[in-house]
């Protein structure tokens, strides 16, 4: 079997189902605020990072949607793409072909790829990643469409429960990551700074909370490293 | 073009920049470089703040769910996480079941 097909097959497991549930909920949330199916699909296809997608939807589609704070806060919420790309780039080979992976650098393909790629022969790595990523990306698009089309036919009780999926999913993911270096202080920073949103309003408040909490966590960790030296 | 369309277009440009810069910098900057570590910390903190606000002071339809039911959903999710040893999907379903059952119990 080609490395592309192996990647494609490995993508369709239990994590894909959990990821699919979040995109289903996103599609429903887009329908809830009255935006079109094409907006939902374009957002999933191109932003392809649920935290940023939700922040963008919450801030840009709300009453009197604020474009600039929505864009900056969504970018901050997905700022992890920068360290993720830096870490995976050397595993995807050299030259322009590495750019083919660009749209697919997101947590679902990235996390298994960081475990799997080092064990594969170098010429097979990019093909495996593209197979895995294309399968996850297509499943995400299908789930988004299903959520958008189903939502209007569900009773409000089930729609509200579906909307709860995403905060719960990300809460669980953060809890699971608490043991990883650097995550715990940033989670605490974000939680402590979250009330800024009540003071500054949701648009600038979320951005301020992320910047203040994240920067404080970063400085605190550097100070800790400095004092150990 | 509506505000939501413009915001989406600008966010897409920002995502290409983040991913593209990361691929270009890969091999040049170490993954533990201060700029990279700062971006990662801001990303996690923004996500944590988002989760707290979405559960504690949600907007839209989620605001119609009483807060004790939202808290019960979080607690049930955490319990599911422990019971199913970190398996994401069963934990998620347990949390949603907790939310719906407590909402129903609250009338």
UniProtKB/TrEMBL annotation, chain A:
Keywords: Cell membrane, Membrane, Transmembrane, Transmembrane helix, Transport. The keyword Lyase does not apply. The lineage of its organism: Bacteria, Pseudomonadati, Pseudomonadota, Alphaproteobacteria, Acetobacterales. It is a multi-pass membrane protein. The chain crosses the membrane at residues 12-31, 127-150, 157-176, 196-220. InterPro entries: Brnchd-chn_aa_trnsp_permease. One of its GO terms (biological process) is L-valine transmembrane transport. GO terms for cellular component: plasma membrane. This is Branched-chain amino acid ABC transporter permease. It comes from the Bacteria. It is found in: Cell membrane. The keyword Transmembrane applies. It comes from Falsiroseomonas bella. Signal peptide: none annotated. Belongs to the AzlC family. Pfam families: AzlC.
UniProtKB/TrEMBL annotation, chain B:
The chain crosses the membrane at residues 36-62, 83-106. Keywords: Membrane, Transmembrane, Transmembrane helix. This is AzlD domain-containing protein. It comes from Falsiroseomonas bella.
């Amino acid at each position: 079997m080609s490395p592309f097909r192996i990647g494609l097959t490995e993508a369709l497991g239990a994590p894909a189902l959990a990821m699919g549930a979040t995109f289903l909920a996103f599609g429903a949330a887009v329908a809830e605020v009255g935006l079109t199916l094409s907006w939902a699909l374009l957002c999933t296809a191109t932003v392809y990072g649920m935290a940023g997608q939700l922040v963008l939807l919450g801030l840009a589609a709300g009453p009197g949607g604020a474009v600039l704070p929505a864009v900056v806060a969504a970018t901050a919420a997905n700022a992890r793409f920068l360290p993720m790309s830096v870490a995976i780039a050397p595993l995807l080979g050299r030259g322009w072909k590495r750019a083919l992976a660009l749209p697919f650098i997101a947590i679902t393909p990235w996390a298994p790829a960081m475990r799997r790629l080092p064990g594969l022969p170098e010429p097979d790595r990019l093909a495996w990643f593209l197979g895995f990523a294309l399968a996850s990306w297509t499943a995400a698009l299908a789930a988004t469409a299903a959520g958008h089309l189903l939502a209007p036919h569900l009773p409000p009780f089930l729609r509200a429960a579906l909307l709860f999926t995403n905060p719960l999913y990300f809460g669980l993911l953060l809890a699971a990551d608490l043991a990883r270096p650097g995550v715990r202080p940033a989670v605490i920073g974000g939680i402590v700074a979250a009330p800024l949103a009540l003071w500054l309003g949701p648009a600038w408040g979320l951005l301020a909370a992320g910047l203040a909490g994240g920067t404080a966590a970063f400085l605190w960790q550097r100070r800790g490293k400095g004092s150990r030296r | 073009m509506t505000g939501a369309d413009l915001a989406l277009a600008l966010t897409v440009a920002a995502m290409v920049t983040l991913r593209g810069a990361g691929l270009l910098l890969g091999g040049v900057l170490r993954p533990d470089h201060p700029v990279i570590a700062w971006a990662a910390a801001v990303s996690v903190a923004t996500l944590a703040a988002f989760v707290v606000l979405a559960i504690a002071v949600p907007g839209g339809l989620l605001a119609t769910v009483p807060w004790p039911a939202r808290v019960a959903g979080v607690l049930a999710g955490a319990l599911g996480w422990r019971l199913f040893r970190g398996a994401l999907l069963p934990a998620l379903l347990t949390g949603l079941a907790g939310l719906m059952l407590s909402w129903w119990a609250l009338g």
